[in-house]
Amino acid sequence: MIEKRNLVRLSRSAILTVLLLLLFGPVYGQLQDEREAFEYSQVLYSDGLYETAAEEFRRFILNYPTSERLAHARLRLAEAYYQAESLTEAVDAYQIFVDRHPDNIEVIGALRNRATALERLGEHIRAAAAFSDLYERFRTGEYAVQDLLSAGSNSRRAYDYPAAEQSLRTIITNHPSSPLLREAAFNLGLTLSDQERQSEALQQFESIENSEREPDALLEIGRISLEQDNITKAERTFTELRKRFPRNRSAHRSYLILGEWYENQAEWSKAIKTYEAARSARLGTAQQQLAILGLARVYRKTNRDGLQLYAQFLKVYPTSEFLPDARLGLGRAFVDKKQYRQAINAFKRLQESFPDHPFSITAHRDIGDVYAALGSPRPALAAYQRHLDRETDAQESSATRLSMGRVYREQLGWTDLAIETFSQLTITARPKIAASAQFQLGLVHESTGVSHLAIREYRNFLERFAGEPQAGEAERRIRYLSSHAPTDPIDQELIDLLDDLTSESMPARLKLGKFLFSKRHYDRSIPFLEAASADTAGTNFAEALYVLGHALNAIDRREELLDPDAPGNRGRILSIFSKLTDTESSWSDDAALVAIELKHPGADTASAQRRADAYDAFLKTHPQSDRIDDARLKKADTNLFLGRTKPGLIDLALADYSKVAKSGSSKLVEKAAYGTGRCLALKKDFAAAEDALRDFLFKYPNSSLGDEARFQLGLILLERGYLQSAAAEFADLLRAPTSVDLEKSSRVLLAECYYRLEDFASAIEIDETLLSRGAESSILKRLGESYSRTGESEKALSVLGLYVRKFSNTPGADSLAFRRAELLAQLGRTNQAIEAFDNVSTRYPKSALTSPALASVSRLYFEKQNYEAALKAVTGAGVAANEAAAELKIVTLLRLDRAKQARKEIKTFKKNHPEATESLARFEVEQARIQLRYGNPKGAQKTLEGVAKKYAATRSAADAEFHLIEALEKIGKPEEHFAALLSFVKNRKNNANWALANLELASIYTKDQDYVGASRAYLNALTGQLEESRRPEVLEKLYESHVNLRLYDSAISYARDLIEQHPLDSRAQDARISVGEIYSEKGEYEKSIAELRPLLTKLSGDKWSSAQYVIAMAYQKMDEYENALREHLKLVYTPQGSVNWVANSLMGRAQCFTALGRSREAIEELEKIRTRFSGTSFILQADQMIAELRQNQ
């Protein structure tokens, strides 16, 4: 039995074991497989087999979704993708890890790696958002500042400049002790520079010292200086950079940047010198190669042997990354030497070696240019087409199409395709291409003999591209086509036949010569006219000789336009007309008149006087001539010219013009009418001159003098102050002009009109186009002020800086230099402002602005409360030996709340300067101010009272009394506070804080409605040492106090002071409105209207409605009810701001209708109030008026 029981027990144990194996065996095996799979993946990752490891981790996650290692596996998967450069997959994997395991300790690292992956993928917007999120979530983390810096740099790369600036400024403001502060400042400078805020960028770059970024900052300072045309500062900065950091990459790049700038400025000798200096310096390989290529480029542009440099480069650097540039340059150098076969081979070699490089694509156009130069148009067009097929840049394609158009015109004569091509290119976005196409379009029409279309295109060129180099040629083509080009084609074979037929007939040859002359075929007319004039015995001898002289003269005038260097015929022409003058023929007087101009051709006053005398003699010797009116007109024109310096001659000219105006010749009458207007203008009789010129333009709308007349009319209107009308005339002149000089003068005066009209945006638009054509002092001055008036301080600084550099010796340059320094100071750019003020004092030592400039330098650092800059400036100033410098350093430390450091400095100061009670008193005052700032007014009171007693004879005792006022206020002792304030104002007038104390006293008086006391205190503040930025506010409160006292005249006076002294302050506009309101309140309604009406175009919202309502009520109070109705109606139909203005105007209209006896219309206006303003107080007044009106009906 016992054995049987044991057997049973054994069986049960065996069964239990089997069951356990069946149940838990697979689980144990699964755990074993999971561990082995994870460890295998880890080994792959550790061995650097990241792609394989990523695949294994991915399988692990799929196979073991409930594993406790799942979080680690997901992180490792993301990291494996990251290390394998599978960045897109890494971004998604990191995001999954963060989403599924937000509480994992590795989340911060995962987020940072995800952001970095996005940055490396070039997805800068998402990267910036990711880094910003990191900063917000982990602000106290070790890498928080780095995250914020990365957010800023990625925002900049994504062109999100506001976000970049915000991130970088947060670092500078909130993390001033971070080691990344200089890096943030450098990136902020780049961000500001990208936005063309160069002065602000300079401020950031100049703040970077003792940092690894300092060389880069110096490079950027030099680059910005070049952009601002401050070449002196740029060269000085680059020299410092190379001297201090000779091995730095930025120092090497400075040569290239400076050389490229000289290239762009076409200062070839300096560019060569810079690149040669770069070659001599020990630059890095890349910079050395770029210097050689730059030098080769300049050699090509200056007709030197760049070919040798390119060949040398290809030999020395056969594997250079800049090889395509060198091969392209080599080909172009061959072109320069007209070695076209070698050039094509060089371009082909480039394309074979680098088939997809942009330079290889560009080479197709160069090959086309070579074939065009060889006179092979079809291969040229094929090459151009290959370039168009591969080029993706629209501007580059435009340049190629322009070359194709030239081939169509010059070599194939395909004028239809040329016109189509050039017409399309005239509207391209690239101005140089559009200008060239516009000019070529004129040449095409000219070559086809369609002169009027050619003139149209040339005039369009002058309208759109007057600043381009071809503008002068366009003007000459217009003048040639208008006055000298043949009017009709002539069949040469027919002319030769007629020559043979008329060889024996001098009259016939004269007729043929005159016919050719009339068609402007001057050269062809000469042989016929010479033959006819050779027959001295013939009856037509004199006429033939006269026409011959004119033909030769016409050829000379034509050649002056087309070929100024061509030899002229002046001697022969003068001989002809002199000979004809001596004959007794009907042409002698005509010849004598022409001879006068030939004998005295100069444009100077001496030649003009001789001409005038000659014309006067002609009038006396030829009283019966039919050319009397011509002579009189020419004499008048000459006297008009001389009248600019001899006003007495104007009357003589005017008298002659009046006589010519009675002539039978319409052409002479036309010219006399214009001359009359000019004379009246010179006599300053502008009203009569305006009428005369307007009559001229009306009677002779197609006159060749029309543009000149319109210009003179614009000048007169500008002189008379009719700015809108003057602007209209000058704007008309800019539509298809015929003269470059007239176009530029009209543009300059149009800008002046807009400036005086305070349409600064339009003035800026015009002046910017003028500036691109060359800097002139008047343009720069006006443009700088326009920028200032529109708040574009950056551009104003740039323009004023350019003025000071280029026109430093012109009258008024000192004031503009001072204005620029003021702008810098107003913008808080202390370092630049100090430098600018220093320049004013050194450059203009005799100027009245020298003293204010020096005063500005002395107070900028401290009084602008830039204590960091002040501390930095004073640290190296010999503190131990200089009491004033030591004092400033300690006070600055106290202002910066660096009390511990300040106490050490004070101990040293007491040892070195034991008798400096004034400074010791000031230190205690500053310590009391710290107590006030940190909420210990009682402690401050004790300290300040001690200073007032212990150092009663010092200036700081007064400062102590001033700050004691604040302490008493914070303690809560109003009576003692008021008494201390009164005492300070009464006894401490010379203290710097006296103005502030008066402002505080004025505030108390205003609350108590004691406007007399308030006015007195505000006046005191203005006479004290008040900050300039606070003066507008005080002037505003001052005139408001006088309004409350009904002292209207003085209130207006103070308001005008605000307007005149601070025209750019926002309160100036409010002051202008207030002046109008004060006049209305005073009862001087006409002055009120005159003051307010010009402001309406500049106002909006409640301000506009207020001014408009005052105008309406002014008319109403003057009993000018119709005008009042009109003005009230403007408020009703164009309401701005509060709707209450509409109700007031409806009430005003009702009152006007009542006064006019029009009760029905008055009731209608009141009913509108009842309908639109129910539930308001306006209803009661409306109901009352309606009842009264109906009762009186």
3D structure, described in words:
The N and C termini lie far apart (139 Å). The protein has 63 helices and no strands. With 1193 residues, the protein is mostly helical.
Please provide a brief summary of the model.
With 1193 residues, the chain is mostly helical. The protein is built from 63 helices and no strands. Helix 38 runs antiparallel to helix 39 (740-756) and helix 56 (1048-1061) runs antiparallel to helix 57 (1066-1082).
Main beta-sheet strand count, sense and barrel state: none
**Quick one: CATH class of one domain?**
Mainly Alpha
**Can you tell me the CATH topology of one domain?**
Serine Threonine Protein Phosphatase 5, Tetratricopeptide repeat
Instruction: Give the mean pLDDT.
Output: 85
Strand-helix topology:
Blueprint: H1 2-46, H2 50-63, H3 70-83, H4 87-100, H5 107-120, H6 124-137, H7 144-157, H8 161-174, H9 181-194, H10 198-206, H11 214-227, H12 231-244, H13 249-264, H14 268-280, H15 285-301, H16 306-316, H17 323-336, H18 340-353, H19 358-373, H20 377-390, H21 394-412, H22 415-425, H23 431-447, H24 451-465, H25 471-483, H26 492-501, H27 506-518, H28 522-534, H29 541-562, H30 570-581, H31 588-599, H32 605-621, H33 628-642, H34 648-660, H35 666-682, H36 686-699, H37 706-720, H38 723-733, H39 740-756, H40 760-771, H41 777-789, H42 793-806, H43 813-826, H44 830-843, H45 850-863, H46 867-875, H47 883-895, H48 899-912, H49 917-933, H50 937-950, H51 955-971, H52 974-987, H53 994-1007, H54 1011-1023, H55 1031-1044, H56 1048-1061, H57 1066-1082, H58 1085-1092, H59 1101-1117, H60 1121-1133, H61 1140-1155, H62 1159-1172, H63 1178-1192
Helix pairs in contact: 1-2, 2-3, 3-4, 4-5, 5-6, 6-7, 7-8, 7-9, 8-9, 9-10, 10-11, 11-12, 11-13, 12-13, 13-14, 13-15, 14-15, 15-16, 15-17, 16-17, 17-18, 17-19, 18-19, 19-20, 19-21, 20-21, 21-22, 21-23, 22-23, 23-24, 24-25, 27-28, 28-29, 29-30, 30-31, 31-32, 32-33, 33-34, 33-35, 34-35, ...
